[in-house]
């Protein structure tokens, strides 16, 4: 030790140096320790695995019961006042990120349904048939288009919904493997969610690490494009080895014959959505423009009637039904079962009602885990025991970000929660804001679209439920059970792999002394 | 840095033990302090910063490098001033 109390380099002064202490006491206390606050989420994950993987029941309603039972059982482990537990559920459910996801699903659901009912799928099939794109190439091309679309609009959830509604049926008809096709759509969503400057996860990753969005996007391009190049080849190889479904030859011929190029006019509303989003419009505004243009095109080109878009089916005894029956949006029906509102707008949103409730409840349970301290226990333990040098620190950042995002359904919420910890571990080793933001968002984007309870998978699966009613040749058995898609989300797995390799080799690593992020430089 | 350069930045394998020139000034986050000196890690390189007390922990400070040994990837520096906060500070 030197005279002034400092320690010479080379000595081991660990016991004299004391780091910062940011621990806040948990707000909800549990019998069995802070780890027990993960009970509701853990119970739900076990339930989801049993229901969807072991018993192959993709029913969202069943998952709602699973999370409800988990939340109720978790309450019995609370020490002290249960009111705090209940309030914490509300605190989680009312987070803007959860609502943002739901809004994106619903708007994208309406938009995709309008395009679907306006013959866009037929247009795609016509184009693929004319261009000679067969079952082998279709998943790889779907991946690229989904990636471009998501990078434009910034919402991977919205893109999953739109592409499952549009590209999934077209691909199946052309003989592509449905599981691979769903995986390719999710992979494209990951690409865009990760890269798009307007994506909420991109923004959260930049803001929590004090970095500018432009710099974050530019610096993460290298990881994303490496993963995407391998994924693209992967989809071609898998496309040539995995068989499609047997669609009855007659149904296929009929659909192919009725497929017309005119449906492709709906590329324009898609471009309008991308253009509006890139121009900085809110996603609600951007997709709304797409909806308006799609409705206009459907009516102008005779692709769908007003009644196809929205139709009120009123009972014959309704007082104002008879006199107004001549309206194009009103039908008087005799059977009580037929009463209701139908049409593209209705069927577009209907797949997401149950899902929205499920997601709110999961986010509530995740908040219990955060406020109860299980989250902090895990992160502090990893900070103290795993992050022993810069390589291990980066691996720890990758692993914890991946784990938390695997557990919390809405990846933006997971990212908001874990952002400060990534910052804490990274700053200890003076990794700059770009590197930290990229490690954080890589895992956030990837893990949000892989597991059966991930928001992106749930969104795509929700959209898939509508398809059997839309096409005569498509039945329930042709849909993908969410657990089956897990290994085929190539972009997700490869992105995590790229970051593991980057941590091990130092690829892309930047220290604060190499380059400051621009926000910081301005300060 | 041009937009194009930003896309090309970081396409390399960066060492876990970066070195610093004596006399240079760097802005780095302090990890720990023993009361009168602070310690910072830049990757696995260790710098002891004289004059960086407990109030500088997890803050970004300007450091003038006074000694550096590349073989052990360790060195010493003098605290100049606090230049920034941690991004997770409230």
UniProtKB/TrEMBL annotation, chain A:
Task: Spell out the GO cellular component terms annotated for this protein, sorted alphabetically and separated by semicolons.
Answer: plasma membrane
Q: Where is it localised?
A: Cell membrane
* Residue intervals passing through the bilayer: 37-57, 63-82, 94-112, 124-149, 161-191, 221-240, 261-280, 286-306, 444-464, 488-507
* Record keyword Transport present: yes
Q: What is this protein called?
A: Na+/H+ antiporter NhaC-like protein
Question: The organism sits in which domain of life?
Answer: Archaea
Q: What is its main location?
A: membrane
- Which molecular-function annotation in GO is an example for this chain? antiporter activity
For whether the record's keyword set contains Membrane, the answer is: yes
This protein's membrane topology, according to the annotation, is: Multi-pass membrane protein
Origin organism is Natrinema gari JCM 14663
What keywords are assigned to this protein? Answer: Antiport, Cell membrane, Membrane, Transmembrane, Transmembrane helix, Transport
Check the record and name the Pfam families matching this protein: Na_H_antiporter
Q: What InterPro entries does this protein's entry cite? A: Na/H_Antiport_NhaC-like_C, NhaC_Na-H+_Antiporter
Q: Which family does it belong to?
A: Belongs to the NhaC Na(+)/H(+) (TC 2.A.35) antiporter family.
Domain (Na+/H+ antiporter NhaC-like C-terminal): residue spans on this chain: 41-239, 270-493
From TrEMBL, chain B:
Q: Its domain of life?
A: Archaea
> Any idea what this protein is called?
DUF7513 domain-containing protein
Q: Which species is listed as the source?
A: Natrinema gari JCM 14663
InterPro entries, per database record: DUF7513
Q: Where is the DUF7513 domain?
A: 1-81
By its UniProt entry, which Pfam families does this protein fall under?
DUF7513
């Amino acid at each position: 030790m030197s005279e002034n109390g400092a320690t010479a380099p080379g000595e081991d002064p660990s016991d004299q140096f004391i780091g910062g202490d940011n621990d806040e006491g948990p707000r909800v206390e549990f019998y069995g320790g802070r780890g027990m606050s993960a009970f509701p989420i853990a119970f739900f994950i076990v339930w989801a695995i049993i229901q969807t993987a072991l018993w192959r029941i993709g029913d969202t309603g069943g998952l709602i019961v699973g999370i409800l039972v988990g939340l109720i059982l978790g309450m019995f482990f609370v020490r002290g006042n249960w009111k705090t537990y209940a309030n914490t559920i509300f605190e989680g459910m009312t987070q803007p990120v959860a609502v943002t996801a739901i809004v994106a699903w619903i708007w994208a659901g309406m938009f995709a349904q309008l395009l679907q009912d306006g013959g866009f799928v037929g247009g795609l099939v016509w184009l693929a048939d004319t261009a000679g794109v067969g079952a082998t190439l279709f998943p790889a091309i779907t991946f690229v288009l989904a990636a471009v679309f998501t990078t434009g609009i910034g919402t991977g959830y919205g893109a999953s919904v739109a592409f499952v509604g549009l590209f999934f049926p077209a691909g199946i008809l052309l003989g592509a493997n449905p599981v691979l096709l769903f995986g390719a759509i999710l992979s494209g969503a990951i690409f865009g969610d990760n890269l798009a400057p307007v994506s909420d996860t991109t923004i959260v990753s930049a803001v929590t690490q004090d970095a500018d969005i432009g710099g974050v996007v530019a610096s993460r391009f290298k990881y994303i494009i490496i993963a995407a190049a391998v994924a693209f080849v992967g989809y071609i190889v898998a496309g040539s080895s995995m068989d499609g479904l047997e669609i009855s030859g007659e149904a296929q011929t009929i659909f192919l014959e009725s497929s017309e190029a005119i449906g492709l006019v709906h590329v324009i509303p898609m471009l309008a959505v991308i253009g509006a989003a890139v121009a900085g419009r809110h996603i609600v505004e951007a997709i709304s423009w797409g909806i308006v243009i799609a409705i206009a095109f459907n009516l102008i080109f005779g692709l769908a009637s007003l009644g196809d878009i929205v139709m009120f089916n009123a009972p014959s005894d309704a007082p104002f039904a008879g006199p107004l029956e001549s309206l194009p949006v009103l039908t008087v029906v005799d059977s009580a079962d037929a009463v209701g509102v139908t049409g593209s707008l209705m069927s577009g949103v209907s797949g997401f009602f149950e899902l929205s409730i499920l997601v709110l409840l999961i986010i509530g349970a995740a908040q219990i885990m955060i406020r109860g301290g299980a989250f902090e226990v895990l992160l502090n333990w990893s900070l103290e025991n795993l992050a022993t040098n810069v390589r291990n620190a980066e691996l720890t950042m990758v692993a914890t970000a991946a784990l938390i995002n695997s557990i919390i359904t809405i990846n933006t919420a997971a990212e908001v929660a874990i952002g400060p910890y990534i910052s804490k571990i990274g700053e200890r080793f003076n990794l700059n804001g770009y590197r930290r933001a990229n490690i954080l968002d890589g895992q956030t984007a990837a893990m949000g679209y892989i597991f059966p309870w991930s928001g992106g998978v749930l969104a795509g699966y929700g959209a898939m439920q509508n398809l059997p009613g839309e096409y005569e040749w498509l039945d329930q058995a042709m849909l993908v059970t969410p657990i089956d898609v897990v290994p085929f989300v190539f972009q997700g797995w490869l992105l995590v792999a790229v970051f593991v390799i980057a941590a091990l080799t130092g690829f892309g690593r930047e220290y604060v002394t190499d380059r400051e992020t621009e926000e910081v430089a301005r300060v | 840095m041009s937009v194009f350069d930003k896309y090309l930045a970081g396409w390399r394998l960066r060492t876990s033990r970066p070195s610093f020139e004596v006399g240079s000034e760097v802005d780095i986050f302090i990890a720990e302090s023993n009361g009168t000196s602070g310690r910072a890690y830049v990757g696995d390189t260790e710098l002891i910063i004289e004059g960086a007390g407990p109030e500088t922990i997890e803050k970004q400070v300007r450091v003038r490098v006074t000694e550096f040994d590349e073989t052990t990837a360790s060195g010493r520096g003098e605290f100049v001033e606090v230049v920034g906060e941690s991004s997770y500070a409230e």
